[in-house]
Amino acid sequence: MKTLFYVIAVISMTITSTKGQSDNPSTHQNGALVNDERCGSQPSIEEAVPFTSYPKGVQRVEPGEYPWVVMLSIENVAHFVGESPYTTCMGSIISKRFVLTASSCFSLYGTENNSPRPRSIIISAGEIDLSTTPHCDDYTSCPLNVYIGESVKYYRDNGPAEGGKNIALVKTTQPIFFHDTVLPICLQHDALLYPSNFWGEIGIRVTASDQNLQQVGGHILSEEENTKLHESHLPGDMHSEDVNSVFGIGGTAAEVYHDSDIGGPLMIKKPIDNVPPRFYLYGIRSFKAETAVPPYASTFVYTKVSHYLEWILDNISE
């Protein structure tokens, strides 16, 4: 099997910073914890997929194709008899100890800042079988590529998805072991932070079915369409949200929406200068809008990761 290894380059650019954002994670005191040298790469894929190639319709995700995608199984102590004791969401590995996901995954704990009890979150990485929930009482009994959540951090200590700020950091009890099928995704930096680089582009979304992960392309709404989304298609409690903190993806009527898709990544594959193209985490799946932004049959709302980059870096650790 042909194995691909991507080499990261340090890119220096002089650009004007957006308020509240760091232009490059490497300038932050915790910057060395993210953008691992193999972040966003696909070393277990035999042939590199051209960066201009996107899924046509819904396609199954092959093992190792998106090695940063994880499934979160969150224990629901208040579940009814006969129901699964776990609520499932998706997330993305960004460092050896942290997964980025949606805070609404933890809404079963109430709208206040109530964090899940320790060890109630199971994180499955790598080749994921969605038909079963792995079980481990502590990290010593976890199967390969399965980890336990140590804590959850909501944005500025607000409750889950309060005011639309649908983002959360999950810390693992033990470092995540990186290998070809378990790797972090890159966080945006430098010019990639700016919306003009992505308005109207096609990104790749990873969603869940009953048995496996799936991928589907989607058009990032144009700047004008995103303004319409913000003004007319968001719930009332989100109208005060910064227009730059969320964005929409245009979808088809045939797409099936699963609650377990929440927290899943919207990824952009980009080459930078002479560095081979790699994947960057652009958005976190939040919810499906009740009404679609024309001309799309459906619209999915995502949290814009770059808007929260400084907060992410402030709240991760080794």
From TrEMBL:
Signal sequence segment: 1-20
Residues in Peptidase S1 domain copies: 54-317
Domain of life according to the entry: Eukaryota
GO biological process, one term: proteolysis
Biased composition (Polar residues): 18-32
Entry's Gene Ontology molecular function annotations: serine-type endopeptidase activity
InterPro entries: CLIP_Serine_Protease, Peptidase_S1_PA, Peptidase_S1_PA_chymotrypsin, Trypsin_dom
Residues covered by region (Disordered): 18-37
Keyword annotations from UniProtKB, A to Z: Signal
Alphabetical list of PANTHER family matching this protein: FI17609P1-RELATED, PTHR24260
Protein name in the entry: Seminal fluid protein
Species name: Nilaparvata lugens (Brown planthopper)
